Amino acid sequence: MWKKQWGIIIAMFIVCLFLPTVHASAAPELKVKVSAGFDGKAKYGKGGPITVEVENNGTSSFSGDMVIDTMQSYESGVGEVFPLDIAAGETKVVTFINSKMFDFNMYGTNTKSIFFYEGGWKKGKEIEHKGSQTVTVAMYHDDTKIITAFTDNIDRMSALKGMQLSNYPNTQLIDASKIAAVKLPDESAGWGPTDVIIVDEYPIADMSAVEQEALVNWVRSGGVIIFGGSDHISVESGIFAEHLPLTLSAKTTVEPDAFNDWTQGEGFDKEVTIAQSTLNTDAKILFASDSNILAASKSIGKGMVVQTAFSVGDEPFSKMHGAHALWKKLLNTVDQSMISGGMMPYYNDPMESMRWTIGNSNEIFPSFKVSAPLIFGVIIIYIIIIIPVLYIILKRKDKREHTWWIIPSISIAVSIFIFAYGARDRIGQAQVQQTSVFDVDKDGRMTGYFVDSILTNKSGDFSFTAPRETTLSTYTPYSMGMFFGSSNMGTNAHKRAIMERDAAGSTLHLRDIGYWDVATLYGQTSLDIEGSYDVDLTVKNKQLTGKITNNFPFPVKDVAIWSGNKQITVGDLGPGETANVNETLKTSSLLPKRSGNSMNFGQMPATTDDLMKMRKESLLTFSGEFMSSQSKPAIIGYTDTPVVPVQLENAKAVTDALTMVTQSFTPKIEFSGNFTVDPEMMTMSLMSEISDMQPHLTGYPANMYYFSEDIYVQTWKVPDDLMGKLSKWKTMEVSKIQHQLYEISIWNKVTNEYEKVESKRKITLDSVEPYLTDDGEVKLRIEFINKQHGNEAQVPEIKLQGEVAK
């Protein structure tokens, strides 16, 4: 009997001992492999594709969610969710677009960013996996130019290899076939790893409609695409056909001297076949020889479409030594054209700058302010009621023994009243503040950035939805949750924010938000709202006159003309309304807009009006650096109509929207007599003569820079509309020269060399023509005296005096 019982006990023990092993052997065993960017390359602050291969080597299936933390900075990011059902022995591939790449392991933190939750991310259990634990990619800064080539044979683009461009000491060439082998991006952010796309007789039209739309939206956001000459370009270019700068016709040939003259070299020794071409509307010639247009450009939004009249991959062009020099000349010309058009390179990441400009002011709600006079008045009345009035009433009634419960009851009632009155706006429903800024592009679209902050009236999760091509992310603000619940701070991004996507768009879940807490999300978007400012302004003898019409479908308040760091007030305009302008200027023309940096960081607004002013100042600061053309004046205005396509899903909220709408423009200028071109009217660039790198702008004063190298070239560019109207140049003044720090010389186009100038604070040149090129450029060479260490210095400014053609 006992033997039988002991046998049962031992058998049960053995079963219990091996049961976990049996259970484990039946569990899914996941192995992960990750690739990201284009050919493993990505740019800091730009989007890019991520591909994840998941292999189940276990004996049971996996059903749940894969969550990938896509960090966008050290304090921002979300967890992307991908539902997965993988049978035993099965492999699945997930490809998605990350709106902004960030190397979280750049300092060796080795943070895990890939997670699996069996049963789903909401209530499921996390399981471990093998293989890649995080997303890794080779990250490049903006000093590297990444070029992607669509071509049947990458050897046709061999002239692009090892190229050094102005301000780009390094280049990377990527074969687009490596991208297409995985999946072409179907969102504009997916093209973020590249700066330039070259199309060499490749059928863009064969891409899907969604992929083509993503590509053209990438160009609109600031990308450059170059089409080489082709016999079937109008068909091959697909969606870009209507944006091509040239119409090609019959074939002809061009002598090699045409290319040698443009590149200032001798690398071309054979004729090149070209197509005769005509310039399309709004296009600009980049390279021409006699009557032959060899390269032209056309702007789309903030980007550019470039087209050549010759094949960039066919021989003999692609194999001649001069092809390398021509590509360098063409790409540098395109960069300069982008800069002269107002697309200055960013010194900071706009998404990061939003955190400290728009984001800070957007997280302050009017309901934070409680009326001090009211609270003081209630306390005074409370004291009066409690002490003399209560005493008199109770004495007359001979009920003074009830004081013990009446006084605490009145105290509780007054406390509840003060609390309810001060928190009345926060108790009923959540509050959402939305601050955004949009540029009006030439094609009628509006592109911009937004920040949404929610002040909760309960704890829990809050969900926001947005359509495709609208990015969503979040950062952790200084949280009130430490007092009213759990804080948003967390080790992993998906612990505080989860992103779910579908065909319609995306949903961002802000997780575990505390009671009366503030949570913030931000992103980029584009709108198809048809409308613009209709601007008809003329400057004559320093007098600005004309009209501005609001063609938007919504009213615009506080419309102003942004010239320099000043705003000329116009007023409020309803849809279709027009305002007349008549203002006296201090300069001969309107100036390119400049940020005034007028924000008062750290100060809490005292009134609702102060808060509105603070939000507008934050928009001005952000817009001055990142929005609209940096080389033109702008029209700005504000609307309280919610235009950002982001919606709060699972809660009711009162929304307060503030949107700045900006549009660059070129005023008409009527000249007469003498005319002064002030430095504020010109564009200026600084570049190292050795490494083609820019100095670092320190900011105070505005033209103070840190120079890490010995010699720099400063280039001033007179606007094209002025060059053609000034018949005679009289004098050039060069001022703010710090001759104790550096020596300067000026480029003489006649002698083809630099001439040294006097060591003075300010000099005046009576002869201008030798120093002003036909393109309206003046070049100063700055050579520092102290060459052992870097230098911090102001740069010279120039002023030109001319006479208007009669």
From TrEMBL:
Gene3D superfamilies: 3.40.50.880. It comes from Sporosarcina luteola. It comes from the Bacteria. Keywords: Membrane, Signal, Transmembrane, Transmembrane helix. The chain crosses the membrane at residues 370-393, 405-423. This is Uncharacterized protein. Residues 1-26 form the signal peptide. SUPFAM superfamilies: Class I glutamine amidotransferase-like (SSF52317).
